[in-house]
Structure formats: C-alpha cells, structure tokens
Amino acid sequence: MVNAFSFACSACGKCCNSPPAMSLRELFRHRDLFVGCIAIGRISRVQADDALAAALFFPAGDRSGDFLSITAQGYDYPSAGRCPALDSAGLCSIHANGKPDMCDAVPLDPLVPDSLQHRVLATRARGAGYIGADCIVPGTHADAALLVAEGRIVDASARAAVERRRTAIATERELWGRAVFDSLRASSTQGKEALARIPPGGYATISIVPALLAVAGLSAACRELCVAYIASQMALIERNVAQAIARRHLNDRPVTQELRGFLASHVRAREVLLESPAAPPVLSDRLRPIADDYFSGP
Questions:
Q1: Is the whole model's pTM more than 0.85, yes or no?
Q2: Distances 194 to 60, 67, 68, 280 between C-alpha atoms, Å
Q3: What is the pLDDT of residue 280?
Q4: Is 241 a domain residue?
Q5: pLDDT at 266
Q6: Which domain holds residue 127?
C-alpha cells in the first residue's frame, strides 16, 4: 500500500455534507447553529495504539479487546446533505469564526494513530463521498501539499489540527466523558447489548444531556453555560423539526423521532438544573479550575 499522500483542497464541499464531530466547547460556541449529541464509537484494537487508547478511549469491556470513543457530535437530518454552517453560496459561514478543529483536521482522522493515517487517506480517496474531488492523491505532487509519509503527518498545519482535536477529546474525556462511560457501564443489560452491536468504525448517537449534567456539576459558571445551551438547543431543535415536517420526506421520520427525544431530555435537564441546588461531585474540586478555564476559552 502507498504510504505517502498529498492533499489539495478544492473547496468542492464534498467533506461538508454533514455536521462535523465537535467538542462540547465548540458546541457551546455554536449553540444556535448545531444540534449537539454524544457519539459513541467502537475503535478496533488494531487501530488504537497504546498512547491514543490511554488518552482518548475507554475499554469496551468485552472479549473483542476493542475500545469506545465518547465524543460530542453535530447532528442533523442526513437528507439535508450539507453542514448547517454552509451559507447560501455553499461556503463555510464560521471559517474565520470558530471553525471546528475536526474540520481543519480533515481528511485526516485524529482517532487513528499517525502511523495509520495513510490507510485513512487511501480509503477516502476511493470512497464514494470523494468521487470527483481529486483532492487526495498518492505520492508527492507539485500542486498539492505532502500530508503523510513514512508513518508521519508531515504537513505542519495538518499535524497541529490533529493535535488540537486530540487535546480537546482528552480534556473532555476527563471533564464529562468518564462520567458518561461509567453510566453506560452501569446501564441495563439492554443498553450494554446495544453498545456491543456497534461495529468497529461505526457509532451510535444519544442525547448530549448526560455530558451537560456532568459538566454542570463542576462549577457555577459551567452550570450557567449548560442552562443557556439547553435553552438554545430547545429552540433550534423545534425549528429543525418544523422545517423537516414542512419538507415531508419519509426518510426524515426516524431523525425527527430522535430529535424529539433529545428535546424531551433537554426539558428534563433544564428542570433539574433550575430547580435543584448545585451539588458538585467530589472530583469537582480538582476539575473545577480546568473546566472553568477550558470552557471560557475560544
């Protein structure tokens, strides 16, 4: 297999056909634009080296030896066929105003070790979603930047974007990912069976609320952020569902059902946060300054 690939973005929009993977901090910033959810992915043990597994993932806890990634994700109707951040001209409306780190990392995958990024690029170069883009080419080319070679990410800007994304995942793994993982591990047999059915490379989505409740318990500032975020998300979900009903696409119905579930969970979470006194967990003393600094940043 070719282990060197170059990349030249043609701004064709083929990689902007759905909401990106995002950090919760990025979702807070763009709370009126992206519906947020939690994506639970299964990472094959073949694709997870020890360093990445320790920093980013959780053990799946079954005989496979696989890992689980628990990250935030933008969510929208697949029938839209475009990222919610695209403007009427098909250009990114937040390119210079908080563009998600994952978008800067594309076409690389921060969840994959650097030594296997050439496989990511080879798969994407021949994938249906990239047909006609011709942005990923094997080897070196005069009109394209060399991206990966000999098991390394050699382009400095791409390497920096991948590292920013990995740092955000590692930080949020501690701020809320571990709490979500612990709740999943303690869930019913039915819930554990649902996790076991996620194939390697696949993922399942659930409401963002478990992450919000974990973060809201870390500090008063985080609690205020979560309450404001919930209000924005409720309004956004209602708008998106109304637009989908007007489109009357049959394929939208499962997504509408899931969005209504998200909305109901937001309603319950808002009631909990507004009516119950703050009761930070024991670990909040250690995580509070980290969370306040992280979520107040850009």
A1: yes
A2: 12, 15, 13, 30
A3: 52
A4: no
A5: 98
A6: 5-209
pLDDT, residue 298, reads 72
Which is nearest to 74 in space by CA: 94, 44, 52? 94
Contacts of 95 (CB under 8 A, 6+ apart): none
On whether residue 215 sits in a domain, the answer given is: no
d(CA 262, CA 280): 24
Q: Which of 7, 37, 33 is nearest to 21 (CA)?
A: 37
Q: Distance between CA atoms of 77 and 254, rounded to whole angstroms?
A: 9
Please state the length of the chain. 298
- Following CA atoms 194, 196, 199, 201 in sequence, which dihedral angle do they give, to the nearest 10 degrees? 100
Q: What is the pLDDT of residue 67?
A: 92
Q: What is the pLDDT of residue 248?
A: 87
Q: Quote the CA–CA distance of 271 and 268 in Å, as a whole number.
A: 5
What pLDDT score was predicted for residue 285?
79
Token pair recorded at residue 254: 């499962």
For 151-171, b/e burial (b = at least 16 CB within 10 A) is eebebeebbebbebbbebbeb
Structure tokens at 163: 């590292």
d(CA 73, CA 22): 5
- Structural domains in the chain (count): 1
Distance of CA 150 to the CA centre of its chain: 28
DSSP letter, residue 177: I
Does a structural domain hold residue 64? yes
Ranges in the chain, pLDDT < 50: none
Residues 50 and 160 sit within 8 Å (Cβ to Cβ): no
Residue 26 lies in a domain: yes
Tokens (6 digits) for 164? 């920013």
Residue 67 backbone phi and psi in degrees, to 5? -125, 160
> Residue 291 contacts by C-beta under 8 Å, 6 or more apart in sequence?
175, 215, 218, 219, 222
| Residues in a beta bridge with 74 | 36
